[in-house]
Amino acid sequence: MRGGKLIFVGCILISLFAQISAVKKSYIVYLGSHSHGTDATLEDYELVESSHYKLLGSYVGSEEKARDAIIYSYTKNINGFAATMEENEAEEIAKHPDVLSVFENTIHKLQTSRSWSFVDMDNAERDRIGALWTKAKFGRDIIIATLDSGVWPESKSFSDEGMAPVPSKWRGYCENNTKDGVPCNRKLIGARYFNKGIRAFNPDLNITNSARDTDGHGTHTLSTAGGNFVPGASYFGYANGTIKGGAPGARVAAYKTCWAEFCMDADLLAGFEAAIHDKVDVLSLSIGSAPVTRGLDYLDDALAIGSLHAVAKGITVVCAAGNNGPDGTIVNVAPWFLSVGASTIDREYLSSLRLGHVTVIKGATQESETLPQNRLYPLINSSDAAAHGVAQGDAALCDDSSLDPEKVKGKIVVCMGGVVDADTKTSNVREAGGVGVVIVNQTEEADYLTVGPNFLPSTMISYKHGLTLLSYMESTNKPLGNISPPESRIGVIRAPVVADFSSRGPSNSTPEILKPDVIAPGVNILAAFSPDGSSTDIMGDTRSTPYALLSGTSMACPHVSGVAALLKMIHRDWSPAAIKSAIMTTARTRDNKKQTIRDYTHEEATPFLYGNGHIRPNRAADPGLVYDITTDDYLNFLWALGFNATYLSNLTETPYFTCPSEPMRLENLNYPAISVPALDKTFTVTRTLKNVGSPGTYKVHVVAPSGVDVVVTPAELSFSRVGEEKSFRVAMTSKHGTIGKGYTFGRMVWSDGKHYVRSAVAVNVVA
């Protein structure tokens, strides 16, 4: 049994879930898979449910008590149940021979930092992408689903105009039996809600019984993955143009498993169960949790369990890598996930700061509120506007209650960046009576302009420009200025850059699997939004918008989900691993300046930041070769982690799994990247490539990690037919003097002159 894993994510969570029972909690009892086959009946499901009551009843006193205690009975694909019980009861049931694991119903969080459109890619990719979309019919008949905070069905992104009838395989539906229900159409073909887990966690929580989105996150992610074409979309005039999802012709479904930004294990498993049964093709999970610290914890986590069942059914599962950067550890690291980090795009949001009547400083903003341009306003340094008894350092950051309204009223306030969120700084200035805000980066090393809507005329300027501003303010007794109206421009800044918030590798639990897998656009992404939600989360901002600019690995994840849907439409017989391999091995590691991708400090990024690189959808459609992985391969991987054969047999529909004579080395999972966390003089990994293109001969090129010799055998592979597989070995030897210097990075590329099958290589020399 896993110990309590309650994640307190700020004061919101504490206030929402203060009423937690000290005696009983809700737990998930996981029993593995079912063996229903394809012809399961309602009677089969009822028999499973009855067996759950019988099992729990033997520990809580009676089947009647078990019926009252069980929240969900997972009867279709995932075998198990969620129930309220005392800790000692959970500990006892965990000892039952049929029980694989028992873990507490804990919290996961949506990964937004608070469309995939042509402006999110470089010019060359814009020119090429149309051919892929035409061939894939924009993903028609592919079904993308999210486990998220629901959907706003009236959004134009979910219009079904011109769409064919719903695919016959679809089993899902929309729950539309209340005034807050969600109607279906030929585009939005499913919408359901699951809230029994969160109600068990806090019965007093005020939530609705509806899949309708009230915060905007679910609508944003679903439309980014599969939203239809919408001309004339913008965020209060910003980023104006036609928006569309990654697979605009795909059908979409929303499983509302998240409430007030938080998602419970029990509800997530119910969502997985429904999505698998309903026959979705791609699952997009913009959800994160606490980093897994041991491989044995994989199957004590609803996201990992549900995703493994989905992948075993041929569903590609794409996950956010987490918003714990720049120092926090990556999440969602199981090898069957396609884990996505976040990058910037090449759209710039400009708002200049005018000083006096002469000097103009370039800044950045997303705020639509503007100042009259026919006058200048007094400027004041926030540290000079400290309220009585407040330290100047707190006032410099424009922290809560730090500013004196008498000093701030009617002025543009200059705040130092960092520590306090930009929207909080702006809100504090607004409450104190200021008319505008200038936020100055504190350090030159991280001179990265992070902009967002602030509900007050505002601009953010660099450290260098901040010195110019402060010099001007010190040169006059009456510093004056104005903030220009905002404008957006495309293709004028370096991109992609790895976002500061994007979580970094290596994985704590299994560093043998290099994570994240790829990065994708996740900063200032324009997509559909719920008019009931707040795009700024600033108190007093009651503005409603049908589209919003949001940032997070939550936004990056559905970009890749859309690409996966396009690939599934073109290559119906590809496995989830093949789709992942195609996306990973065709990714790029150079930006639009033809240089190595940078992080937000302008330093060269590494595979621990960008994985195999930034996605290139058109290249992924024709990768040439793929690294394929079967369900048995994943089970072998779990066996090598320490799970026993009986346990693993229960994870499959039929108890056929047999452990090999020797456990595999974790590094030898047929992953599209290579990670060796402890190179002790020499080490050899093996990989197998499958041909998915025309016949040809591929030669390998290796850029070895610093301090490591790398030899690939054979160095040439010839393929004569589609589906043919060839294996090779990668031998690594440490050089003298490289011990203890940490990870170094390289790459391996197989090419026939047309295709380039790229793999990142990470090695840590220990001897």
UniProtKB/TrEMBL annotation:
MF (Gene Ontology): serine-type endopeptidase activity
SUPFAM superfamilies: PA domain (SSF52025), Protease propeptides/inhibitors (SSF54897), Subtilisin-like (SSF52743)
PANTHER family: PROPROTEIN CONVERTASE SUBTILISIN/KEXIN
UniProt signal peptide: 1-22
Keyword Signal among UniProt keywords: yes
Swiss-Prot/TrEMBL GO biological process terms: proteolysis
Residue ranges of domain Inhibitor I9 in the record: 26-110
Domain Peptidase S8/S53: 139-613
Protein name: Subtilisin-like protease family protein
Keyword Hydrolase in annotation: yes
UniProt feature coiled coil, ranges: none
Domain PA: start-end pairs: 394-469
Protein family membership: Belongs to the peptidase S8 family.
Alphabetically ordered keywords of this record: Glycoprotein, Hydrolase, Protease, Serine protease, Signal
